[in-house]
Specification:
4-stranded antiparallel β-sheet; alpha+beta; 460 residues; 19 strands; Alpha-Beta Plaits; 15 helices; Aminopeptidase; homodimer; 8-stranded mixed β-sheet
């Protein structure tokens, strides 16, 4: 039996113990956006540092202006080096009443078809995914006494809350962190049977604005129509943001957005993708984006504007004839190709200001931003990783686009000059960011085996 | 000294005792919306019944499905009869920390300019106002042994909590309650020196709608632009509701809305009203309603559409790249002249449905409705009341419009066919429904004298 086979056998033999470790970390309520959970974030960081140290990494949970960042090195062998990134923080869990179980009490469920799923907040995003890599390292160390290549593990605790500490951290520690290739496990498979490496990522601009009209809440019977209503102002701005054809109306928004390369478009059109099934899975049927674009284009290669939150006035039961003093909205733009996040943020602010009456005020809160990215799929590391995934899953791994933004990918590319292999084992129905998040047990187990293979392949 | 002069002298002589009685009723925590205060509401009703009985009314606190309704008759004389309506319940007092004193421990404060104010929850809305009428009756009985006209007093305990018991009560007791004219003391003066009778009331349609798109919250990175976003749909509907000139765009909305009678418009234009001061008092300066209309028209004689609440998606601190499953809004329309609440509700629902994509759902919640009302200002009773107010305050009493709805006024008009004289002594800075509610001592004292004069005038 060669080394890789022994490692895979070790992973199979220790599957229950790996699951126990994942459950332990899923019980930690590391909600990064809510200051009430700061101690849990710290506890989660310390758990990971201890765990990585236990398998031979030089591991530290390092303080930042926000939540700790874990850096762990195992450079006992020579060869091309890898930097693995994951995040130990999770999304908030509201609305709580929609969870069918305690979000932080992980459990293994068997579905009617016999497949098993791990249920908990963070099971897929990203604790379950990041632990696939850690468990692969553990098996290599146990079987071979060393990793196939030098590895640094970098775990962040602010991915779900703007990631403010990471850029400065990467810059300050660039020499220590730079490696020949980046590895991230925070993406999806193509489908439950088909692995995929995401090689295009959209960028992001997150922006919140708050409109203040009168200096107090008013009675709409007395002030209605005479006094500016910030709900109307916000609704108007949000409505103006897209035209009847679904195009974003910000001036200059489409600068740097070419049509897709015809060869790539042909490849995408040939993918086994059914837009009706994609939308049907969440109870919808009508693509809501730009007219004349395919759903894959909408979600992979076209920029978007989405209102992620809006609110103003009385939202409780019953009715209150109030004109609120304030109303607000949170808007995100997904960027593609060469769109400039800074220019788009400025264009949006100008767009909003132009629609706020002269006697009202508007303030802006910046919530992260980053450019879109494309990786060179003909570089050797990408081919090796694809072949390793193909071997594990018995199905040709795909190079795909993707709709989400993974800001750290952009930072690794920009600050450290690294290409990143985005190989993840999430599935579309994982309900990440929603109540009842899950991660397939198969994703977890074969994800560990996949990383064991990729580490091996990269050493060749 | 004629009888009226003697009554006015009696009111002046007994001013302190009247204030003591008001303080006694202000100490009762008759918060109708909170079941925890049901016993206090009952105690308050019984206090009023006893008090009215003590001055010779046949008074009863009658049980209802909600809080008791007091009916008190004094029909010992002949002549045109009056039904006086007031409410003994009060608004909740939260947020408690904003009160500068105990909300239910009334006190008399002297302001820097030497004027005195009564501070307590309910001092203006409506205990202080309703007691002006009761004290006027007391003085007439004490001085003349009888009221100038037959009077029925009707005091409700659910005005601040939906008033569910009153419509059925009015219908069931229509014959007993019907009078030649209605009297209500629950409105404001024009300004602290100028009395007013409100003769136009706008109607109301309250409506809530909830748009459901996907059957769960989605990640905007994966589904953005492909999946319908209910925030966009709701924002579009709300934005479409008014055009660039501030007009409501619902088809047929302005049916039954004539231009204001030129004579009345001229009278309003001549009123000492400064729109800049009106808006400036709440930190605004630009009238937000229909272009080409005065602020008084906007708030008195033109119909409006106001978004009282809207919400969807993540509204907490930080950012969540979510596409919510649902978003909603609460909208109220103020109606004037002959607008039909039913037709407008239906037009609004059709307007909303036309803007909800075929794969999304919308549901509606009805939140009350009623027609606008105008009273015949050339009817003799209105002229008599105006002259009585003019005599007391030494300043011509005004017939004014008003933006708010007073549901009981509509009921008295619709169920009992009665015109209602709305004469009140509240002031704009009374902070009704807010912390630190007050009622000017001058409003209380001259309010009592005003009703003494109006009762006398109506008997002539």
């Amino acid at each position: 039996m060669d080394k890789l086979d022994a490692v895979l056998a070790c992973i199979d033999a220790n599957a229950d113990a790996a699951l126990e470790r994942l459950f332990a970390v899923l019980r930690i309520k590391s909600i990064s956006t809510d200051p009430a959970y700061a101690a849990e974030c710290k506890a989660c960081a310390e758990w990971h540092a201890r765990d990585l140290a236990s398998i031979g990494f030089e591991a530290e949970a390092r303080a930042t202006p926000g939540h700790p960042i874990i850096v762990a090195h195992d450079r006992s062998v020579a060869g091309p080096s890898a930097l693995f990134y994951g995040h130990y923080d999770v999304q908030p869990v509201d609305p709580l009443e929609l969870w069918e179980h305690d979000a932080f009490e992980p459990k293994l469920d068997t579905r009617p078809d016999g497949t098993k799923v791990i249920r908990a907040r963070g099971s897929a995003d990203d604790k379950g995914q990041l632990m696939t890599f850690v468990e692969a390292c553990r098996a290599w160390k146990e079987v071979a006494g060393a990793l196939p290549i030098p590895v640094t593990v970098l775990l962040e605790g602010e991915e779900e809350s703007g990631g403010r500490s990471l850029p400065g951290f990467l810059e300050a520690n660039a020499a220590e962190l730079k490696a020949d290739v980046g590895l991230i496990c925070d993406t999806n498979m193509w489908d439950p049977a088909t692995p995929a490496i995401q090689t295009m990522l959209r960028g992001l601009v997150g922006e919140e604005f708050i409109v203040t009209a009168a200096d107090r809440d008013l009675h709409s019977g007395f002030y209605g129509s005479a006094a500016a209503n910030p709900n109307h102002i916000v609704a108007r701005i949000l409505a103006d943001l897209r035209d009847a054809d679904g195009r974003v109306t910000l001036p200059g928004f489409y600068d740097g957005v070419p049509e897709l390369d015809p060869a790539l478009k042909a490849q995408w059109d040939a993918l086994p993708f059914d837009p009706r099934a994609f939308l049907g899975a969440v109870g919808l049927s009508v693509p809501a984006g730009e007219k004349g674009r395919s759903v894959l284009e909408m979600t992979w290669s076209r920029p978007t504007a989405e209102v992620n939150g809006m609110g103003g006035g009385y939202q409780g039961d019953g009715f209150k004839t109030v004109i609120p003093s304030k109303a607000s909205a949170k808007v995100s733009f997904r960027l593609v190709f060469d769109q400039d996040p800074h220019k788009i943020r400025e264009a949006f602010r100008a767009f909003v200001r132009a629609r706020v009456p002269s006697d009202c005020k508007v303030e802006f809160l910046e919530h992260g931003g980053g450019r879109a990215i494309r990786f060179p799929i003909d570089a050797p590391a990408f081919g090796k990783a694809r072949d390793a995934l193909t071997a594990e899953w018995g199905r040709e791994a795909l190079f795909i686009g993707g709709g989400g933004s993974i800001p750290v990918t952009h930072m690794l590319k920009t600050s450290l000059g690294m290409d990143v292999i985005l190989a993840g084992f999430g599935l579309e129905d994982d309900r990440i960011h929603s109540p009842n998040e899950k991660y397939d047990l198969k994703s977890f187990h074969k994800g560990i085996r996949s990383w064991a293979r990729i580490l091996h392949a990269l050493s060749k």
